[in-house]
Amino acid sequence: MKKFAAVMAFLMFLPAASAGFISSSLTLEVEEPPAVPVDGSVNVVANVTLSWGFGMFFPLPVTVEMSVENVSDWLSVSITPDNFVVTPSGFIGGEASKDVTITLRSRKETAAFVSEAITLRAKTSGNFLLRGAEASKQVYVMQGFADNGITVEAPSALHLYTGEEKTLYFNVTNKCNSAVYLTIEPENVTGFTISSGSSISIPSGERKTVSVKVKADESTEENAIFRFGYYPPGHEELKNYESVELSLESHARPGGGSLAMGIVVALVIILIIAGIWKRKR
To answer: Which of 48, 84, 91, 125 is the most buried (most CB within 10 A)?
Structure first.
């Protein structure tokens, strides 16, 4: 019995170069990971299956080692467990599976929703009876949206005559890690017509000047609120808002009667001067 145990131990620890005649293969199946949050992590499960062929007359264990390659500097990846033992048995062949957990964590902020591939590898060197095997799988990862907000530079007031239309300009800076679509929604506005047009796109880290048209429908003064909605393309569920307040004032134009009175007064003065000039002649 002791001799048998010694032989078994010897077979287990023979180097990989001595791996033997029984065929083996590894397969990997990995869940598609969600976007990795800037300040957090996500877990996905990978299933590793080792299969072996005919002739396994001794149940000799093998170690399967996990690793990952092609990881960008914004991301850290850990695998739990990063190695495990499988003991193939059964003369006619068989297979055994193991789930491992892959943790993806952001190390720093990067561009959102830009897909890139990391390579997950599983490898066994085999043993005296079982040949070594290796498998790899590309896993596509991306960072999620970092809502760092937008800044809006706006005038404090706009003055119009009743019936007049003017263009109001805002400078908007996108501080998020993705381009954003921008919408403008006026609130607390009753005596003016606001036309803001369609949404526009602002790249990450850039500033754009956006405009709205304001028409005074009546003579009034209002503290208008402009809500600037922003969200990354394709993710309107992440929409957020930045609001600014400004004064809208409209007044009637000077009346035509006052102008006519001014003309009459001017004519009277001219006639008086003309009469005085004739008398002196």
So the answer is: 48
Whole-model pTM? Answer: 0.76
Inter-CA distances, 255 with 39, 217, 249, 259, Å: 62, 17, 18, 7
Domain's final residue, options 110, 141, 172:
141
Helix, strand, coil percentages, rounded to 5, for the chain: 15, 50, 35
Q: What is the mean pLDDT of each run of 10 residues along the chain (281 residues)?
A: 47 48 92 95 97 83 96 97 92 91 97 97 90 95 97 94 94 98 93 88 96 94 95 96 95 66 67 65 57
Distance CA 249, CA 75 (A): 52
Of 141, 170, 202, the position where a domain reaches its end is 141
How would you class 87 by CB atoms within 10 Å of its CB: exposed for 0-12, middle for 13-18, buried for 19 or more?
exposed
Type of residue numbered 137: K
The candidate with the shortest Cα–Cα distance to 192, out of 134, 264, 148, 250, is: 250
